[in-house]
Amino acid sequence: MTLTFEDFPQGPFGSFGPRHVTRDEIIAFASEFDPQPMHLDEEAAKQSMLNGLSGSGWHLCSLMMRMMFDGFIGHTASLGSPGVNEVRWLSPLRPDDELMLDVEVIEARVSRSRPSTGIVTFKCGVRNKAGERLCEMVSPIIVERRAAGAEVA
Prior knowledge:
By secondary structure, the protein is an alpha+beta fold. It has one domain (5-144): Thiol Ester Dehydrase, Chain A. It is built from four helices and six strands. Strands 1, 2, 3, 4, 5 and 6 form a six-stranded antiparallel β-sheet that branches. Strand 5 and strand 6 (133-144) form a beta hairpin. The two termini are 25 Å apart.
């Protein structure tokens, strides 16, 4: 079943995961995209404000996007996103973290310019096995409505 705009009422939507993150993944991502010492070298990371090896915040955002896709976007009538409203990194991503993604719909409105679509704004949060919030993101997604050409309510 493909999810449409009408399947996203305001409120809690669901939790997705877990997703295990390895030390090797953290270092590989950092080597390619964010080669700061706290993401690459355990000794340097111990001297940083993060007090140990941690994944890049951009790695965490990439993992969040994959979890969103696997959890619901992959079977949603999504037409894309106009961007991300907010990203907050709250706690470090650590090797061997088990990640869960919590998703809430904070707004769903019919598009004024394209009434056959709606804009669903999600607040997504990633937490580790201990329940500690690592990252939060607020982002709208443009989603087709069930009835093509539906009237604005």
